[in-house]
Amino acid sequence: MKLIFPNGEHAAVALGDGVTRVGAGSDCQIVLVAPGVSVDHCEIEVRSGNAVVRARDPAVATVLNGRQIAQPEPLKPGDLLLFGRIGCRVVATDRAVATPTPAAAVLPAGEDGRTRVRMALPKFMLRGVSGSTFGRNFALSGSMTIGRQADCDIPIQAEEISRHHARLQVTAEGVMVEDLGSANGTWINDKRVHTGMLRPGEELRLDTVRFLLLAPGAQVPASASKAAPENAPAAQREGSSAVWWIIGVAILTAVAALGALRYLGKI
Questions:
Q1: Strand, coil or helix: what is 94?
Q2: What is the rounded distance in angstroms from the CA atom of residue 252 to the CA atom of residue 266?
Q3: H-run or E-run covering 262
């Protein structure tokens, strides 16, 4: 659970196991300096996922869901707390481990009547062609940042790359590249750019680290490239047959002419 202060009197506070003290005192975990908040106002205790709130100073008001408390009260997501005039809401925190495994991941491959999810190819991909990124592919979608910092969408651990080096925006024609004030520059086909359009087959270079832009969905299928070799022998055979037929006719014509000349006594 955590506390959210909608009016901005304090940053959101995650409630971990143990006691969290609220008040105007500097030794409190949640320090609120405002009229109606005492030095040691109240405390919230969390144990094994269960939380209670206790008033520590009966001279000031600690209000839970519109009712002033005088003894420990259970606290749960959705509750409203008021410390003097400062209010906050109790909200649940997401747990990544509670996310269920998608059912499609465990369906038998051959089962009928089931929808099979096909992973769509990204419109564009960057393929590393130098250094530590050589041979690595990076799928591009929407707006992404590339740089050395871990919070980048495409983090590249290379000293010559700035922490936030460039922004990549996927468009219908290609990828719009914007340099984010990098120290060593951003280049498209060996031309330094502040902003520029990167198209499939072109090279993106961040100082010495180079990438090639690919469009997987636009690549020629392997079956199409094989069609020509498979059909070529048939065309060659047809051409060869025509040549041999012409040669045969020419030979027969020559033989017939020789025979006629010999019959006439010309030779």
A1: coil
A2: 19
A3: helix 222-263
| CA distances for 1 relative to 57, 63, 76, 93, angstroms | 24, 18, 8, 5
Is the pLDDT at 84 greater than 70, yes or no? Answer: yes
68's enclosing H/E stretch is: strand 67-68
Q: What is the pTM of this model?
A: 0.40
**Residue 60: closest CA among 92, 86, 27:** 86
Q: Please choose, from the candidates 201, 208, 192, the residue with its C-alpha nearest in 3D space to the C-alpha of residue 173.
A: 201
- At 117 the pLDDT is 43
The rounded distance, in Å, linking the Cα atoms of 202 and 210 is 11
Residue from 58, 49, 64, 53 nearest 30 by CA = 53
Q: Which two tokens stand for residue 181?
A: 């004030």
The closest alpha carbon to 170, from 161, 178, 162, belongs to: 178
Distances from the Cα of 142 to the Cαs of 7, 24, 170, in angstroms? 33, 46, 5
10-62 pLDDT per residue, tens: 888 999 899 999 998 888 999 998 888 899 999 999 998 899 999 998 888 88
3-state secondary structure (DSSP) of residue 14: strand
237-258 burial, b at 16+ Cβ within 10 Å, e below that, comes to eeeeeeeeeeeeeeeeeeeeee
